[in-house]
């Protein structure tokens, strides 16, 4: 079964850091880019960023709202993607999902597998 | 940055066809993907590449895309289709994924 499981969420004060993990199983992790998408309470989906697969350079892209504060990385040997979140703000409070592209071409076909999400609360 | 516009809400009676729109500048030149999200659940891909369905998605779900508007159509609507629906495209100009604001489908 293809599965993504996020972990690492929690409550943190503004300005602090948190690292989320996304553990993949059931597919060849290294062949796919990995996305992070968040959803603030009562709000819509917001793409956070993604990391391309190594064959496509392993490079990253970020939404303007998190660029310079968040970093996405991957460990293909473990099948895990990470989201390092620094300088957290109250507006970063959200459920964070990782998701897998439908295609090994990262920007094609949408995202066909999603984790259950992990909640991050930033509050003083 | 590229913007996708969806109506906040769409209402339809059971058995009828629901049409949820997604507007964007020349969106017909992009491939549109649609997600269904029920309360407390992760999004579910229901249509990708404008009109293709992932395995397991009923044929009642279909999509179209032309000009400045993409549409998700749900025929023979059931109570279980009540959910938020989001459109999504890849904006090659910014190398960003973009989501629409979401439309809440209410089954009357």
Question: How would you summarize the topology of this molecule?
Answer:
The complex is a heterodimer of chains A (124) and B (108).
Chain A: E1 3-7, E2 10-12, E3 18-25, E4 34-39, E5 45-51, E6 60-62, E7 70-75, E8 80-85, E9 94-101, E10 111-114, E11 118-122
Chain B: E1 9-12, E2 18-23, E3 33-37, E4 44-47, E5 61-66, E6 69-74, E7 83-91, E8 96-99, E9 103-107
Parallel strand pairs in B: 1-9
Antiparallel strand pairs in B: 2-6, 3-4, 3-7, 5-6, 7-8, 7-9
What features would you highlight for this structure?
heterodimer; A: 124 residues; mainly beta; 7-stranded mixed sheet; B: 108 residues; 6-stranded mixed sheet; 3-stranded antiparallel sheet
State the major sheet of chain A.
7 strands, mixed
Radius of gyration of chain A from the CA trace? Answer: 14 Å
Q: What is the arithmetic mean of pLDDT of chain A?
A: 97
| Helical residues, percent of chain B | under 10%
What does this structure look like?
The complex is a heterodimer of chains A (124) and B (108). In chain A, a hairpin with a 5-residue loop joins strand 4 (34-39) and strand 5. Chain A has 124 residues and is mainly beta. Helices cover 0% and strands 49% of the residues of chain A. The mean pLDDT of chain A is 97. In chain B, strands 1, 3, 4, 7, 8 and 9 form a 6-stranded mixed β-sheet that branches. A 3-stranded antiparallel β-sheet of chain B has the order 2-6-5, with no helix packed on it. With 108 residues, chain B is an all-beta fold. In chain B, strand 3 (33-37) and strand 4 (44-47) form a beta hairpin. Chain B has strands at 9-12, 18-23, 33-37, 44-47, 61-66, 69-74, 83-91, 96-99, 103-107. The relative contact order of chain B is 0.34. Chain B contains no helices and 9 strands. At the A-B interface, strand 5 and strand 10 of A face strand 3, strand 7 and strand 8 of B.
């Amino acid at each position: 079964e293809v599965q993504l499981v996020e972990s690492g969420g929690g409550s943190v004060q503004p300005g602090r850091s948190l690292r989320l993990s996304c553990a993949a199983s059931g597919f060849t992790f290294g062949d796919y880019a990995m996305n992070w998408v968040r959803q603030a309470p009562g709000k819509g989906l917001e793409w956070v960023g993604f990391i391309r697969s190594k064959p496509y350079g392993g490079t990253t892209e970020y939404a303007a709202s998190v660029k310079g504060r968040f970093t996405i990385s991957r460990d293909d040997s473990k099948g895990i993607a990470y989201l390092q979140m620094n300088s957290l703000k109250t507006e970063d409070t959200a459920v964070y999902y990782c998701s897998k592209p439908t295609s090994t071409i990262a920007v094609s076909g949408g995202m066909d597998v999603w984790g259950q999400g992990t909640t991050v609360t930033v509050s003083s | 940055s590229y913007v996708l516009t969806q109506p906040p809400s769409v209402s339809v009676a059971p058995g009828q066809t629901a049409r949820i729109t997604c507007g964007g500048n020349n969106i017909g030149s992009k491939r549109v993907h649609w997600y269904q999200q029920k309360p407390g659940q992760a999004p579910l891909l229901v249509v990708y590449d404008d009109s293709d369905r992932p395995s397991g998605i009923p044929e009642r779900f279909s999509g179209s895309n032309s000009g400045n508007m993409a549409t998700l159509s749900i025929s023979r609507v059931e109570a279980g289709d009540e959910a938020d629906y989001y459109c999504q495209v890849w904006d090659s100009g910014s190398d960003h994924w973009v989501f629409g604001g979401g439309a809440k489908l209410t089954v009357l």
